[in-house]
TrEMBL record:
Enzyme class: hydrolase
Protein name listed in UniProt: Glucosamine-6-phosphate deaminase
Keyword Amino-acid biosynthesis: no
Location of the active site: 62 (proton acceptor), 128 (for ring-opening step), 130 (proton acceptor), 135 (for ring-opening step)
Task performed by this protein: Catalyzes the reversible isomerization-deamination of glucosamine 6-phosphate (GlcN6P) to form fructose 6-phosphate (Fru6P) and ammonium ion.
Native organism taxonomy: Bacteria, Bacillati, Bacillota, Bacilli, Lactobacillales
GO biological process: carbohydrate metabolic process; glucosamine catabolic process; N-acetylglucosamine catabolic process; N-acetylneuraminate catabolic process
Enzyme Commission numbers on file: 3.5.99.6
Amino acid sequence: MKVIIVKDNAQGGKEGYQLFADAKKNGAKTFGLATGSTPITTYQEIIKSDLDFTDSISINLDEYVGLPEGSDQSYNYFMHKNLFDAKPFKHSYLPNGRAEDIEAEAKHYDQIIDDNPIDLQILGIGRNGHIGFNEPGTPADSKTHKVTLTQSTIDANARFFEHEEDVPRFAISMGLASIMKSKHILIEAFGEDKADAIKGMIEGPVTTDLPASVLQNHDNVTVIIDEAAASKL
Ligand code: GLP
């Protein structure tokens, strides 16, 4: 893993942007995208730039299951607000969390990933080391699947909802094997509450207890973290 330690989230966004710019320059066509607060500064730098994605494909990691149609908490809404409205892609895929048959939707999503190999995948990390919505215990060979969210993730994400009970209990997420197929993976983390997860991811054993540790088995991972997230290394 190549680890880049930055001063803060803003500088992290500039470094993250640079990876997107380099990937585009080198012919990348398909970008794996993430939600959460972490990638926002990278998306802001992309929006400020003259990068053009109208010939590119995007594939998002995950989506909540069971939100009402048009919910402004959905990851679909998040992506439009934070990136797509300003930087449209030729085609943007997100898992459909409102599909009647989530298992069928998961299979369909894996086919999309197989048909559009991801050149650069951006990831955040949960406090418990989850990536996408792959919670501790998720097998390394997992593909896109329905997830039952842990209480730790529900608590962490409650800040975006009016009431804790409004946070969905389920999601659909690319699996760890789906993520590991990406040619280049960029994982970002900012803030002290990510320090334990980052330490485990980089220095700990590869274990399903900390899903992000599987990235040690990938040969092209760039980690962009601020000093607080790096404080336990
Ligand atoms: C959510 C998302 C993840 C994200 C994580 C961290 O659970 N499914 O993709 O990485 O939260 O979020 P944040 O970046 O807001 O800390």
